[in-house]
Amino acid sequence: MMPGMTPEQRERYLRHVLLKEVGGQGQQKLLAARALVVGAGGIGAPLIQYLAAAGVGTVGIADDDAVALSNLQRQVIYGTGDIGAAKTARARAAVARLNPDVTVVEHPVRLDDANARAVVAGYDVIVEGVDNFEGRYVLNRACIAARKPLVSAAVGRFEGQLALFKPWAEPGLPCYRCFAPEAPPRDEQINCAEEGVLGPVAGVMGALAAMEVLKEILGIGETLAGRLLIYRGLETATRTVKLPADPECPDCGGIRRG
Amino acid sequence: MQVLINGETRRFDAPMSVSALLAALELPATKVAVERNLEIVPRSAFAETTLADGDRIEIVHFVGGG
User: Fold this and answer.
1) What residues of A are annotated to the active site?
2) In angstroms, what separates the C-alpha of A29 from chain B's closest C-alpha?
3) Which residue of A39, A178, A184 is in closest CB contact with B66?
């Protein structure tokens, strides 16, 4: 029995419900969950699709960009007719086509230290695929302050990196800044705008990030917290390495000591 | 001392720290993370972490795109 689900929902999520680790109760958790996607770009596009398809009940989408022609090689929820439109609005339309169970909340703003904490406070889990280091530091600080789990995905060229940060949850768990204490010099940053990225690399990382969000909501499997996954597309290789906290980290060192 | 760096064998005359390794490779510590035997070394531990014969090192460049 799955009380609380309509016949349509029982059929829509049947392949989830068949999984004993998910079941009807797990699906209800997804339907009740609130996830915030920051960055509706190459990583965000498939991520939003998978969260919406999975029936995550509320999906916040934060992005202050408009769709550009050069986005379409990898940002698969947008089409040629979307060029110039706000990404949050077009992402919302894509979700509406996919699943009426999902409520989208648009945050068409750039998150900064002044506004991020209030935004993340309204969600159970935050997932980011932003296109710059500063945005990752902003989210890292906000999620530590609000004690929210942060799934962080990044791509450049043929490589992707994925981690889950919740340094407040137990001793020894890192935050983003334990991994990358400071942004590389501007002219040496590996980002999509300047270095390029092969489209499917963003798709791989978006799907992997969606997987970690669902695991975190459902409370199943082996957490990625304390580990870093590195995807190397040209080698068709992944490796997952330990990522310890840095006791000297300026962003999360304090909460551990406190 | 022999260590494997990004899959390639390198020999050094004497034991060295992660900081010294990055200096020898002419890599600024601000640009990379260092993975030693499948574990990221926190930057604050670069100076005090001494490499051992047979260590497998990966230099991980931060990617920042989305």
Assistant:
1) 192
2) 28
3) A39
A55: closest CA among A218, A170, A230, A236? A218
Query: SS3 for A64?
Result: coil
**pLDDT tens-digit profile of A147-202?**
999 999 999 999 999 999 999 999 999 999 999 999 988 777 777 777 899 999 99
Check: CB of residue A200 under 8 Å from CB of residue A233.
Answer: yes
CB atoms within 10 A of CB A80: 8
Residue ranges of domains in chain A: 14-242
pLDDT band of residue A9 (cuts 50, 70, 90) is very high
pLDDT in tens, A205-239: 999 999 999 999 999 999 999 999 999 999 999 99
Closest alpha carbon within chain B to A240: B38
Domains, chain B: 2-61 (3.10.20.30)
Q: In one letter, which amino acid is B25? A: L
Q: Which residues contact A181 (CB under 8 A, 6 or more apart)?
A: A246, A249, B30, B43
Show the tokens assigned to A125: 């889990």
pLDDT band at A2 (very low <50, low <70, confident <90, very high): low
Q: Does B11 touch chain A (CB under 8 A)?
A: no
- Prediction ipTM score: 0.95
* pLDDT for A1 beyond 70: no
Residue type, A167: P
- Cα gap A150→A168, rounded to integer Å: 11
| Residue A120 burial (10 A CB sphere; 0-12, 13-18, 19+) | buried
CATH T-level topology, domain A14-242 = Rossmann fold (3.40.50)
Q: What is the rounded CA–CA span in Å between residue A74 and residue A49? A: 13
Q: For A152, name the nearest residue in chain B, comparing CA atoms only.
A: B66
Burial A42-59 (b: 16+ CB within 10 A, else e): bbbbbbbbbbbbbbbbbb
The β-bridge partners of B60 are B33
What's the whole-number mean pLDDT along residues A76-91?
A: 98
